């Protein structure tokens, strides 16, 4: 037979339970969040933009747009940020990785998507090294440069790619060509 419960014992158990509740809720939330992320399963479904493009080209799908200065730039579905968005001398950049996607697939995706969004290609996709590609587009005064390379030392095919937005640049003007306010008049 169980000993009778005294009010003091009951109050202690209630306090202990009340203290454990936030911890249990946190564990339950983390467990549920972890259940929804199946990276292996997502890799295969994220390679295609939509059903119409499945037969045309195996490029990554569009997940929409990021916030802020990249509003007009699509980000491939399944891409994972590997760096925070940074700004230097007016240039905004961010880097990503995409699993089960080649550098050529990333560049094909951007060539197709940016053309549909009104970006004009000013530097066609070109090799910049072994398994490394780059291209550039302009829209109005904005210049967009994208580079993609095959990640080394990883089991699955993984591509790292960077997006650089150079706002208020004339077509073909590089970031280092911007007027720094100094005169050459000695």
Number of strands: 9
- Main beta sheet: strand number and arrangement? 7 strands, antiparallel
State the order of secondary-structure elements, H for helix, E for strand: HHEEEEEHEEEE
Global mean pLDDT: 69
> Helical element count?
3
Distance between the termini: 100 Å
Rounded to an integer, what's the Rg over CA atoms? 25 Å
Task: Extract low-pLDDT stretches.
Answer: 2-18, 21-67, 175-186
Number of folding domains? 2
Going by CATH, the architecture of the largest domain would be 3-Layer(aba) Sandwich
Quick one: overall form? globular
Q: Under the CATH scheme, which class of the largest domain?
A: Alpha Beta
**What portion of residues is helical?**
25-40%
CATH topology of the largest domain: Protein Transport Mog1p, Chain A
Region (Disordered): 49-69
Protein name: Lipoprotein
Signal peptide: 1-33
Keywords: Signal
Structural account:
The chain folds into two domains: 1-35; 42-173, Protein Transport Mog1p, Chain A. Helices cover 27% and strands 31% of the residues. The protein has three helices and nine strands, in the order ααβββββαββββ. β7 and β8 form a beta hairpin. It is globular, with a radius of gyration of 25 Å.
Short summary of the structure?
This protein is of the alpha+beta class. The chain has helices at 7-35, 39-45, 103-116; strands at 62-65, 74-76, 80-81, 86-88, 91-99, 120-129, 132-139, 142-150, 158-166. Strands 3, 4, 5, 6, 7, 8 and 9 form a seven-stranded antiparallel sheet that branches. Strands 1-2 form a two-stranded antiparallel ribbon.
